[in-house]
Amino acid sequence: MSDRAALRPETVTVSAGRPAHVPGAPFNEPVTFASAFVAGGELEYARYGNPSWTALEEALGALEGGECISFASGMAAVSAVAALVPHGGAVVVPQHAYQHTLMLLDTGAAEGRFEVRRVDIADAAAVEAAMPGAAMVWIESPTNPALEVADIARLAAAARAAGALSVVDSTFASPLVQRPLEDGADVVVHSATKLIAGHSDIVLGAVATGSADLAERIRQHRGLHGAIPGPMEAFMALRGLRTLSVRLERAQANARELTRRLSDAPGVVEVRDPGFGTVLAIVLADAAAADRVVERVRLWIPATSLGGVESTLERRRRWATEAPTIPEGLIRLSVGIEHIDDLADDLLRALAA
């Protein structure tokens, strides 16, 4: 549609990335299983393009307000963006963030590839103080699993003034909650495995940018490194995206109500709620108490992933690679779309026990 920009984001999730409205056309872009295409057309080899990716990328690009490049996984997307940093360049990064993003950067630092500067991403002044001479400012908001919230617009403006690229991992928020490109960020990263696809059945990543130059560099990285999405995964992610608005509305309402009900629950020392999105955290006295709660729930699923229709929970410090500044008793809660009373009853029973 030529007037796509005039549509609300909730409508874009349903309408973008579809075939033209002509008689006899399918509603959805079919899955294209092909390794090669007949020479002379726009596509020739499947490592560089597939109509199934194109449909997903059109929809996500329309939502983010930029150009989208899809990847085989969230980490493939992270790796492609990290590759924009010149050799030896400094990256300002949250002290709390997705473990494997930090591990990627730390591994690169050990090899002399990066200089890593860790900051409290919620302390804008401290982040700005770390920017001089940096090549990239990596913003995760809310952070995983501490749930700190960054001032994206302020940090993006400061990064641009410092000559650094600003990147926002917006996985916990989704394009329906925050649109970092509109706030001045250069690049947005998603693990589309999570809220975007929303059904815990595929692995996929995505990058969006408003810069044609950056989009071309990222796309070239994908082609050379081969981190391409499968056509079926792209199709399923787009199908999941169609219901993002209604899933998010229900899950966010559940999350805010859970915060209210857990605030004075037995054994809960702290509830961490960024105020948006579907992920919360509760802090219990110690690891043993948190482990007992995880063992005793019946409806909540103990799992390390998040963003699906089902509710999951996990004591994050069970991973040796989790930041030592995360409390031992912190349980991350990914809130799904079940009935709020059932979710709350299950969790409160486990806490009371």
Break the fold down into its secondary structure elements and pairings:
Blueprint (H helix, E strand, L loop, with lengths): L8 H7 L35 H14 L2 E5 L2 H9 L6 E6 L4 H12 L3 E6 L4 H6 L4 E7 L11 H10 L3 E5 L17 E5 L13 E5 L2 H14 L5 H12 L1 H19 L7 E3 L6 E5 L3 H10 L4 E2 L9 E4 L14 E5 L5 H13 L1
Parallel strand pairs: 2-3, 2-4, 4-5, 5-6, 10-11
Antiparallel strand pairs: 1-7, 6-7, 8-9, 9-12, 11-12
Describe this structure in words.
The chain contains eleven helices and twelve strands. The chain has helices at residues 9-15, 51-64, 74-82, 99-110, 124-129, 152-161, 212-225, 231-242, 244-262, 287-296, 340-352; strands at 67-71, 89-94, 114-119, 134-140, 165-169, 187-191, 205-209, 270-272, 279-283, 301-302, 312-315, 330-334. The strands form two sheets. It has a seven-stranded mixed β-sheet, sandwiched between helices. A five-stranded mixed β-sheet has the order 8-9-12-11-10, covered by helices on one side. Strand 8 and strand 9 (279-283) form a beta hairpin. The longest helix is centred in the C-terminal third of the chain and has 19 residues, at 244-262. It is globular and about 65 Å long.
